[in-house]
């Protein structure tokens, strides 16, 4: 389906044609030789053999660069066979490709024509090589000099009626240094409008963990997996999205631990694992990972956790030692209320809602009753629902009852997405006002940051849609395709006077642009970043709060790229013209100087220039120290969480929008979802066979998916029906093709994360 804009004739959604599906059985195990083979195919195709081997030897090594894929930490001793996974190699191949999107490319293809390409084709065109401008009424990007681009941005920012008409998005790939400088500039400019990808991702975790435990991050370290007795993996697909986590689960199993997965799908990556970093792993039949799989229905994790807690409470009455009473007494608040509240629910009701097998759930209860070194890992399966915050609070309830915090082998593990999304937050990318951060900035830099709350992602889109925000600047990411309600977001971006994307690769947001649009090409993680012949390095923070350095090594794809700090510094310099207490130019050129400032402003970064070398250092984490002094009564908080309520109509399903094995968010590496057995096609919808029967659907029938929120019909057209092992009443399909169905104004309470994992839809056969 094509939709058009007023001026440029842009296809917002791109083509909806099929690419030639082939269906096989879901994979019997994750990784192993097929993963090595596929990884190398991707690398060789994009980078050639020599560059591939050189690049991979430096990935996730102490003197190399941090993988631009996920945020899973590196072990102290990296494997000799390389410390990377199939999808990390795909990420690097995508970034370090030899293909170029240069001025000739843009002279050949208009944005109208490019918008009719699929995201896969757009992404595969190659790396951006020089700054480009799309002028009002034009459909062709043209070259522009860096200086002119900075001057134009500065002028548009000066022309705004108020700084709050600017929106400054960040995706989570940016380094701590770039993110710190960006946040500093946005505050100096005068707004807190800093939406970021986290708003669509782990924001629910941040809110829930801050309210209950006093820090919006997880508490476990990598070595805790060696000691854990039980690891619960809830709403997460590590085989695809955090493959190196499988090695940690493998170690846990080797040490006698048990792994429980809670997921509407039986994800292959969690069933069996052949570790490609061990010879024996590749040759043997691998390690079976999941001991018990609870096939929960979409968004019925709260009923399931309540059921588990209720049964544990009954056992505790009998045995007296199922809960950690000393811990509860000493460190927590509200435990009686929680147990009292559980009386409202019957076990039968909770079991039925959750949809899980009763005897499996009893096995889980028994395991949890007998152990207290418990880690709970989760990702988007818990956060992207209306009650995303409560989902996580219910996990915290369980850990608190068991005393599974602040001890080896136990704790919270929200598994982060982008490789530095956590670091970006730590150094100040945030739409909320932090009085203490503002105070430190004032003390260090001599200006007062604004104290008005900024816009998060969903509210920034609404502001642009309504014309209340007019300039959109993105430090990375693909805002159009990542955000909810693609057609609404497209209108929002196209309403802007100026959209600016600081990017490595071409994506749909460059095409669905404001009246004027700029593409500012930047260095990738893997590229050598030099100033006057001297290499510079960055720092990043991994999913477990460890900060370490990252240094690129490849020759940059073009001489006309700037680093992210240089681009931010260039904009700031043009905007302030030397009339500001911050010396933007010197900061943007010398990252040691930025780090010295971070050290002054952000707690835990003392001595960062020295400490970030080697394997790095951990930031402070109050949960590890069992210090809850900032919370009410100076205790960790139990929470009362309601059951989710979707008011599903008879003909409606709940749809989760998930990642295939061949994508990184909106970057499509390829068309195969190998673990789920779907090849060469992304326009598919996974559905239970019994539901197919009721709807009289056959395999490969073509359907439209339709959501009807607020009496508005939103349609994702042309999807092939795939019979799958998924609970009745539930559907799964890929993101971003289905983002068009997610209403912009329906999001999680408190965290405002779009409801991308529980969208009410109906199916229409064509
Ligand atoms: N290769 C690769 N790596 C990535 C990414 C990528 O796209 N590709 N993305 C990165 C980013 S930014 C992120 S945030 C992470 C995302 O990592 P994940 O959260 O693992 O990604 P999703 O594909 O969204 O998978 C969600 C999982 O939750 C399950 N699920 C959905 N709804 C529910 C529910 O209601 N309850 C339960 N219990 N489970 C549910 C789904 O079946 C699926 O297994 O990965 C990061 N790493
Ligand atoms: N329906 C649905 N929607 C979702 C989700 C979902 O599960 N379902 N998941 C959500 C989640 S968890 C997230 S995190 C967001 C992701 O949202 P984003 O972070 O906005 O999206 P990405 O696809 O990761 O962004 C890819 C683009 O980033 C740019 N890029 C890559 N590396 C770099 C770099 O080093 N520097 C710069 N400056 N640019 C770079 C490239 O141009 C590339 O095209 O999407 C969210 N949207
Ligand atoms: Mo994410």
Protein described:
The chain has 766 residues and is of the alpha/beta class. The chain contains 32 helices and 33 strands. A six-stranded mixed sheet has the order 6-5-18-17-16-7, sandwiched between helices. A six-stranded mixed barrel has the order 25-32-29-31-30-33. The longest helix is centred in the middle third of the chain and has 19 residues, at 301-319. The model is unreliable at 1-5 (pLDDT under 50). The structure holds ligand MGD (2 copies) and molybdenum atom (MO). One ligand MGD binds at residues 69-70, 87, 201, 234-237, 240-242, 262-265, 267, 296, 298-299, 301, 379-381, 417-418, 656, 658-659, 663-665, 757.
Key structural traits:
disordered N terminus; alpha/beta; binds ligand MGD; 766 residues; binds molybdenum atom; globular; 6-stranded mixed β-barrel; 6-stranded mixed beta sheet
Secondary-structure map with pairings?
Elements: E1 22-23, E2 30-31, H1 32-47, H2 49-56, H3 86-95, E3 100-101, H4 103-108, H5 111-114, H6 119-123, E4 127-128, E5 132-134, E6 142-143, H7 146-159, E7 166-170, H8 176-189, H9 203-213, H10 224-227, E8 230-234, H11 238-241, H12 245-254, E9 258-262, H13 268-271, E10 272-274, H14 279-283, E11 287-288, E12 292-294, H15 301-319, H16 325-331, E13 332-333, H17 335-342, H18 347-354, H19 358-370, E14 374-378, H20 380-383, H21 388-402, E15 411-414, H22 421-426, H23 435-445, H24 457-465, E16 471-475, H25 479-482, H26 486-495, E17 498-503, H27 508-511, E18 516-521, E19 530-531, E20 534-535, E21 538-541, E22 546-550, H28 564-576, H29 584-589, H30 591-601, H31 608-611, E23 617-618, E24 636-637, E25 653-658, E26 663-664, E27 667-668, E28 678-679, E29 684-687, H32 689-694, E30 702-707, E31 714-723, E32 730-734, E33 759-765
Parallel strand pairs: 2-10, 3-4, 7-16, 8-9, 8-14, 9-12, 13-24, 14-15, 16-17, 17-18, 25-32, 29-31
Antiparallel strand pairs: 1-28, 5-6, 5-18, 10-11, 19-20, 21-22, 22-23, 25-33, 26-27, 29-32, 30-31, 30-33
Helix pairs in contact: 1-2, 1-3, 7-28, 8-28, 9-21, 15-18, 15-19, 15-21, 24-26
The structure holds ligand MGD (2 copies) and molybdenum atom (MO).
């Amino acid at each position: 389906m094509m939709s058009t804009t007023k001026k440029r004739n842009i296809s917002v959604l791109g083509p909806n044609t099929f690419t030639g599906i082939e269906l096989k059985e879901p994979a019997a195990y994750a990784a192993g030789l097929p993963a090595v083979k596929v990884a190398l195919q991707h690398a060789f195709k994009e980078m050639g053999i020599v560059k591939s081997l050189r690049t991979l030897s430096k990935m996730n090594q102490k003197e190399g660069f941090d993988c631009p894929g996920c945020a899973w930490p590196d072990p102290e001793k990296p494997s000799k066979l390389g410390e990377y996974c199939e999808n990390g190699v795909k990420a690097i191949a995508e970034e370090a490709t030899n293909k170029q999107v240069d001025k000739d490319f843009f002279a050949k293809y208009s944005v109208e024509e490019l918008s009719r390409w699929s995201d896969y084709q757009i992404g595969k065109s190659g790396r951006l090589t020089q700054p480009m401008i799309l002028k009002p009424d034009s459909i062709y990007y043209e070259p522009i000099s860096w200086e002119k681009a900075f001057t134009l941005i500065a002028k548009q920012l000066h022309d705004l009626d108020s700084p709050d008409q600017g929106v400054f998005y960040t995706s989570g790939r940016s380094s701590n240094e770039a993110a710190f400088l960006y946040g500093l500039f946005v505050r100096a400019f005068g707004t807190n409008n800093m939406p970021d990808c986290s708003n669509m991702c782990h924001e629910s975790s941040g809110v829930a963990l801050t309210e209950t435990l006093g820090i919006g991050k997880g508490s476990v370290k990598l070595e805790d997996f060696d000691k854990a007795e039980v690891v619960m993996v809830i709403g997460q697909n590590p085989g695809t999205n955090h493959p190196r986590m499988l090695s940690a689960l493998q170690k846990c199993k080797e040490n006698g631990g048990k792994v429980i997965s809670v997921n509407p799908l039986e994800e292959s990556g969690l069933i069996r694992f052949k570790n490609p970093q061990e010879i024996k792993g590749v040759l043997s039949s691998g390690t079976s990972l999941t001991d018990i799989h609870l096939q929960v229905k979409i968004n019925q994790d709260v009923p399931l956790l309540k059921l588990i807690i209720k049964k544990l409470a009954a056992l505790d009455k009998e045995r007296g030692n199922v809960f950690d009473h000393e811990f509860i007494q000493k460190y927590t608040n509200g435990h009686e209320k929680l147990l009292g509240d559980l009386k409202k629910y019957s076990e039968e009701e909770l079991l039925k809602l959750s949809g899980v097998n009763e005897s499996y759930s009893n096995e889980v209860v028994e395991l949890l009753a007998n152990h207290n070194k418990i880690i709970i890992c989760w990702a988007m399966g818990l956060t992207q629902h209306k009650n995303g915050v409560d989902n996580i609070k219910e996990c915290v309830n369980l850990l608190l009852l068991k005393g599974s915090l602040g001890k080896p082998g136990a704790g919270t593990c929200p598994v982060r997405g982008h490789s530095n999304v956590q670091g970006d937050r730590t150094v100040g990318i945030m739409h909320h006002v932090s009085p203490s951060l503002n105070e430190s900035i004032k003390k260090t830099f001599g200006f007062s940051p604004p104290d008005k709350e900024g816009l998060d992602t969903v509210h920034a889109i609404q502001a642009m849609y309504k014309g209340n925000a007019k300039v959109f600047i993105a430090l990375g990411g693909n805002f159009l395709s990542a955000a909810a309600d693609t057609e609404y977001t497209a209108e929002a971006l196209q309403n802007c006077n100026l959209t600016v994307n600081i990017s490595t690769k071409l994506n749909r947001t460059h095409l669905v642009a404001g009246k004027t649009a700029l593409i500012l090409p930047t260095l990738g993680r893997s590229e050598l970043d030099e100033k006057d012949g001297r290499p510079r390095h960055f720092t990043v923070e991994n999913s477990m709060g460890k900060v370490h350095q990252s240094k690129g090594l490849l020759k940059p794809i073009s001489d006309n790229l700037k680093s992210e700090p240089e681009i931010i510094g260039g904009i700031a310099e043009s905007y302030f013209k030397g009339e500001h207490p911050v010396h933007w130019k010197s900061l943007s050129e010398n990252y040691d100087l930025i780090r010295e400032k971070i050290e002054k402003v952000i707690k835990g970064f003392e001595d960062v220039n020295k400490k970030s070398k080697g394997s790095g250092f951990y930031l402070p984490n109050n949960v590890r120290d069992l210090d809850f002094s900032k919370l009410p009564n100076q205790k960790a908080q139990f929470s009362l969480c309601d059951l989710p309520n979707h008011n599903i109509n008879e003909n409606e399903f709940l749809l989760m929008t998930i990642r295939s094995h061949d994508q990184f968010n909106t970057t499509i590496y390829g068309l195969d979802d190998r673990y789920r057995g779907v090849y060469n096609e992304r326009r598919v919808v996974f559905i239970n066979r019994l539901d197919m029967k009721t709807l009289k659907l056959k395999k490969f029938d073509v359907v439209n998916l339709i959501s009807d929120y607020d009496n508005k019909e939103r349609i994702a057209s042309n999807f092939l029906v795939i019979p799958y092992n998924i609970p009745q009443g539930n559907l799964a399909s890929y993101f971003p093709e289905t983002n068009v169905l997610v209403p912009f104004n329906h999001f999680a309470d408190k965290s405002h994360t779009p409801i991308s994992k529980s969208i009410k839809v109906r199916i229409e056969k064509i």
